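Anyone up for a design puzzle?
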């Protein structure tokens, strides 16, 4: 992933997500940074218990229709949903968090986001011909947070091991 991001950076310059750790987003929580977020951790921990790790295969590079984001496609979307759904359900059961939680049901591994049209064309030119088939073992759910401002980086909050 770092190699692909570096390749895009060489071709197009700066873009959103260039310095983010590779991840698949399960949900967004629109909470103030000063929020203790204990319910998030408790809900995530309780729902991660009992889930088994799984193999995650990636098959190809594509983009969203607006051509602002290029990403890698995971094959096991159902396995991701099996982990995501109970976590989101538990978080939304908390009255304090309910309105702040937004589930994402389009799992993907972002290479570059926020691309302008010319940047997209240059990036796609170098990525589209690449065949990408990767298999990784998923062993944990990681809670990350960052301010939703340009240049902000994710900070590790806590990890939850899958069985």
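Challenge accepted. My sequence:
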């Amino acid at each position: 992933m770092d190699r692909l991001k570096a390749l895009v950076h060489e071709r197009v310059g700066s873009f959103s997500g260039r310095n983010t750790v590779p991840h698949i987003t399960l949900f967004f929580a629109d909470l103030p940074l000063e929020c203790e977020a204990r319910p998030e951790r408790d809900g995530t921990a309780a729902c991660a218990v009992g889930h088994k790790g799984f193999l995650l295969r990636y098959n190809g590079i594509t983009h969203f229709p607006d051509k602002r984001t290029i990403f890698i496609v995971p094959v096991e979307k159902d396995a991701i949903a099996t982990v995501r759904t109970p976590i989101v359900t538990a978080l939304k059961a908390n009255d304090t968090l309910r309105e702040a939680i937004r589930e994402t049901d389009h799992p993907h591994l972002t290479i570059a986001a926020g691309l302008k049209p010319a940047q997209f064309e240059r990036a796609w030119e170098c990525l589209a011909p690449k065949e990408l088939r990767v298999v990784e073992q998923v062993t944990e759910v990681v809670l990350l947070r960052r301010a939703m401002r340009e240049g902000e980086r994710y900070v590790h909050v806590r990890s939850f091991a899958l069985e």
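A detail worth pointing out: The longest strand covers residues 54-63.
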